[in-house]
Design brief:
The structure is a single chain. The protein is α/β, with parallel strands linked by helices. The chain has 2 domains: 142 residues, Rossmann fold, CATH 3.40.50; 68 residues, Alpha-Beta Plaits (2-Layer Sandwich). The protein is 28% helix and 27% strand. The strands form 3 sheets. The protein has a 6-stranded mixed beta sheet. Helix 1 packs across helix 2. The chain is globular and about 55 Å long. The structure holds ribulose-5-phosphate. Ribulose-5-phosphate binds next to helix 2 and helix 4.
């Protein structure tokens, strides 16, 4: 699949940012999984790093590859994190959370010096919002928060798993997928969502990404903030 080859190429290009001795944040999703696998190869070849995974899935993958891990309890400064994204705009604002891990991803990103986003070219957009914005909510407040976000102009649905029941995040919350169509004021919306009681986190990552690596065919396009 060409798209998957682009994801792998972007992940490969991000390896240049990882240096010996560093603590490295390990993102979540199919592109981040490529990065973790490539990092595993480097570790086998002698690279000494410690990883902090952003999800149970990424932790299990890293463990299976023999990547040494640490935690935020032990270490609160992360040199570099490599993660994917669902959308990236020209100011390097992101929508994340398609894989349901944006809460831990944002916590890890906030402790990271250099956040490197890896993506195939389809993720580059002029304006955020075509991809449904994930909002993580405590189950108790789900209906109330859904109503309030709908009042902001979104079509809101509760994310479900294969069993038809609400998808449960690693932190035991639910996710509302919010279809805005276009988000002309991402900064304002991020503030509104953060102030809503019951919202644990949302998928707008603003002012966090330092570098974005897009793979377009065999070409890598690097954008910096
Ligand atoms: C998970 C994420 C992912 O990074 C995002 O959904 C992109 O996923 P993929 O690399 O599979 O396209 O934010 O919460």
């Amino acid at each position: 699949m060409a798209n998957d080859q682009e994801k792998e190429a972007a992940a490969r290009a991000s390896l240049q940012f990882v240096k010996d001795g560093q603590v490295v944040g390990l993102g979540t999703g199919s592109t981040a999984a490529h990065f973790i696998k490539l990092l595993g190869e480097q570790v086998k070849n002698g690279l000494r790093i410690r990883g902090i995974p952003t999800s149970v899935r990424s932790r299990e993958l890293a463990e299976s590859l023999g990547i040494p891990l640490t935690t935020l309890d032990e270490c609160q400064e992360i040199a570099v994190t490599v993660d994917g994204a669902d959308e990236v705009d020209p100011q390097l604002r992101l929508i994340k959370g398609g894989g349901g891990a944006m809460l831990r991803e944002k916590v890890v990103a906030s402790a990271t010096k250099l956040l490197v986003i890896v993506a195939d070219a389809s993720k580059q957009v002029p304006v955020l919002g075509k991809f449904p914005l994930p909002v993580e909510v405590i189950p108790f407040a789900q209906a109330l928060v859904a109503k309030r976000i709908a009042a902001l102009g979104a079509d809101v649905s509760v994310r479900t798993g294969a069993d038809g029941k609400p998808y449960v995040t690693d932190e035991k919350n639910h996710i509302l997928d919010c279809r805005f169509g276009q988000i002309p004021d991402a900064d304002g919306l991020a503030r509104q969502l953060s102030e809503m009681p019951g919202v644990v986190e949302h998928g707008l990552f603003i002012g966090m990404a330092s570098v974005v690596l897009f793979a377009r065919g065999s070409e890598i396009v690097e954008l910096r903030r």
